[in-house]
Amino acid sequence: MSSSPVPRRELKDKAVDLLLSDQFVLYLSIFYVLLLAPFLPMLVTPANLVNVLSNMWPLLIVAIGQTFVLAIGGIDLSQGAAIALTSVLGALLITGAADPATFANTPIWGWLLTDAGGPLAGVDHGVVLAIAAMLVAAVVIGLINGMAVAMFAMPAFIVTLVAMMIFSAFALWLTQSGNVANLPDEFIRLGRGDIVSVYFGAKEEAKIARRAIYSLVTYPMVIALCVALAAHVLLNRTVFGSQVLAIGMNRKAAEISGVRVRRIIIAVFVISAVCAMIGGLLFAARLEAGRPTLGGGTFLLDVIGAAVIGGTSLFGGKAKVIWTFFGVMFYVIMANSLSAMNLSAFQIDMVKGGIILCAALLDVLRTRLKRERVR
Predict the structure, then answer these.
(1) How far is CA 227 from CA 43, 211, 223, 275, 330, in A?
(2) How far apart are the C-alpha atoms of 71 and 79, rounded to whole Å?
(3) Which residues pair with 213 in a beta bridge?
């Protein structure tokens, strides 16, 4: 006795449920890995998984900040510049030594920076003070962006584009394009330090090579997950978050309903800049240097692409931090697999661009399906 076929309507409903679910990109990531693993077995090796995670955490933090801006229907192109400037500023304050051949022509040589290092080098709690200075700089950048958009009704695209040009150029001018190294171990530990590591080899070995020890829980992981948890509560569990999404859906309606739109917009851009600063801190600590070129190139493409792939709408009004988490995970796995295929940088960028376009089209499709279900 054969079972009756499942009605097409039921199959369609299940497909739509899957497409609209919060875990859709997670399922897509798992399917992607399972599909490529037989052809690229290195994707599932412990060493590569550790590499994927190390690349994921700073990007996740920056993408969370971008998610807040996208939620109000805006965009923040200045995140890369905020990363560059704050990482350089923090490194200049705590560097233990500076090469005169590299920095003698900088405008800060001789009073803020000398061959003996920065003013906070060797000072008690110097790293904490440097991070505080980075935070202040990020808040200033966010305030400038937010006030220009909120108070003067300027397009976010233009405001943050100009901010990107100014602050990235300022970081380059401040260091004359030099990387600020010789950072204290306390700072470097934030980007490279392990809390829990694992070893899969024979227990009787007297001396274990460092490359055989894999990071399981790291400082960047803990910092990123704490930021993600706080952002999730703020965006998706508070009145502030509801107001952010309301502005993205309909700014005029939000104003009429009593939402302090200007304050919310300013706060959103400050959050974006602060997230960029935290991501820049982890990048600088991982690279053991403050670099004025951090956040440049196609980095902003990665940030926006990861958020959009996760499901955050480019039109505003629809965003969840969990979506961004899954989007970043998929994006990093995809980039890692493309590198494993020995594709050139140009080919990788073309593939990334195509996937981001598909994500934007998928966003339109999901929005349409939701509207049809409401009807």
Answers:
(1) 27, 29, 6, 8, 19
(2) 16
(3) 199
CB neighbours of 90 closer than 8 A, spacing ≥ 6? Answer: 130, 131, 133, 134, 187, 281, 284, 290
pTM of the entire structure?
0.92
Tell me if 352 sits within 8 A of 298, measured CB to CB.
yes
Helix, strand, coil percentages (3-state) for the chain, rounded to 5, are 70, 5, 25
- Please give the average per-residue pLDDT across 189-217, as a whole number: 73
Spatial contact of 36 and 335, defined as CB atoms under 8 Å apart: no
Distance CA 85, CA 82 (A): 5
C-alpha 156, offset from chain centre? 19
Residue 114's DSSP bridge partners are 117
Radius of gyration of the chain (CA): 23
The rounded distance, in Å, linking the Cα atoms of 201 and 196 is: 16
For residues 91 and 289, give the distance between their C-alpha atoms in angstroms, rounded to a whole number: 7
Q: What is the pLDDT of residues 141-185, one digit of tens each?
A: 999 999 999 999 999 999 999 999 999 999 999 999 999 999 999
Given a contact cutoff of 8 angstroms between Cβ atoms, the answer to whether 44 and 289 are in contact is no
| Helices and strands (H and E) in the chain: how many | 15, 2
User: Do 33 and 40 touch, CB atoms closer than 8 A?
Assistant: no
269, two tokens: 């851009």
One-character DSSP codes across 148-215: HHHHH---HHHHHHHHHHHHHHHHHHHHTT--B----HHHHHHHH-EEEEEE-S-TT-SS--GGGEEE
**Residue keyed to tokens 């992981």:** 221
Percent pLDDT > 90 in the chain is 63
The DSSP H or E segment spanning 136 is helix 126-152
Please state, in angstroms and rounded to a whole number, the distance separating the CA atoms of residues 202 and 208: 9
pLDDT, tens only, 60-93 = 999 999 999 999 999 999 999 999 999 999 999 9
In 3-state terms, what secondary structure has residue 319?
A: coil
